[in-house]
Specification:
alpha/beta, Rossmann fold, 7-stranded parallel beta sheet, 9 strands
Length: 275
């Protein structure tokens, strides 16, 4: 029988991330905060950012009990704010060894119901913001140091993303960006990978309609949702020296969902052509 509680525990050595500085976007809650906790437990230092500074106090209370942590507000959709954030982290620590692009946001909707404004909002956040952050960290910190690890948190888009065309398109763009930068930056020993979670029990999925969550659960072969801790394990592994020869990869974290089942209900045809 699966021991999910045991799977939540940090499986890594206490010095795995010793002296490493990690910048985590969307780091004040959910997957981002849990990843920050694990990196601190492994001897690293963390800087978190988000659009809602009011969340920082509780997050920093948790993180500061474990190690060196820093928080700075940033809307990743705004290049000037990204530049200010990276500058503040560099001024404080003098380096950025790991970037976790975790910030993102979307809303469930059939494609025909997504307005141009809604489309732009999701693309700016999930695709543009990821590029702005990645480019700034790479050019300011990683490429000059000829060392670094970037982990992009995307989504299970292997079979398309019906009901979320906006974020599916954005995340597919990030997955291709991951592969492209992995090749371009290999000469600098900067690794770029992605984690593609399926159904995760987190603060983000709690906002979705219950029927959407239930349908996703039914179409997951393992018949359960992953925990934020399990997701953080995958991120920390790819960010760590344990994965030095892995770059350009997307790690599916979905209990087999990308390999099985339908993700969108299609009504039967009534024109006689469906036989």
């Amino acid at each position: 029988m699966l021991d999910v509680e045991r799977a939540k525990k940090n499986p890594f050595a206490a010095d795995l991330m010793k002296d490493q500085v990690a910048l985590i976007t969307g780091g004040a809650s959910g997957i981002g905060l849990t990843t920050a906790v694990e990196i601190l437990q492994c001897g690293g230092k963390v800087a978190i950012c988000g659009r809602k500074p009011e969340r920082f106090a509780a997050a920093l209370e948790t993180l500061s009990a474990l190690g060196e942590a820093f928080a700075h507000p940033c809307d990743i959709r705004e290049p000037a704010q990204v530049e200010a954030l990276v500058g503040a982290v560099m001024e404080r620590y003098g380096r950025i060894d790991v970037l976790v692009n975790n910030a993102g946001g979307q809303f469930p909707s059939p494609a025909a119901g997504i307005s141009p404004k809604g489309w732009d909002a999701v693309i700016r956040n999930n695709l543009n913001g990821t590029f702005y952050m990645t480019r700034e960290v790479a050019t300011r910190a990683m490429l000059p140091a000829k060392s670094g690890a970037i982990v992009n948190v995307i989504a299970n888009i292997a079979r398309g993303f019906p009901g979320m065309a906006h974020t599916g398109a954005a995340r597919a763009g990030v997955e291709n960006l991951t592969k492209t930068l992995a090749v371009e930056w290999a000469q600098f020993d900067v690794r770029v990978n992605a984690v593609a979670p399926g159904l995760i029990r987190s603060s983000g999925t709690e906002q979705y309609p219950p029927e959407l969550t239930r349908m996703s659960l039914e179409r997951t072969p393992q018949k359960r949702a992953a925990t934020v801790e399990e997701t953080a394990h995958a991120i920390v592994y790819l960010a760590s020296p344990a994965a030095l020869f892995i770059t350009g990869a997307t790690l599916q974290l979905d209990g087999g969902a990308c390999l099985w089942g339908e993700s969108w209900m299609i009504p039967d045809r009534d024109d006689g052509l469906g036989w």
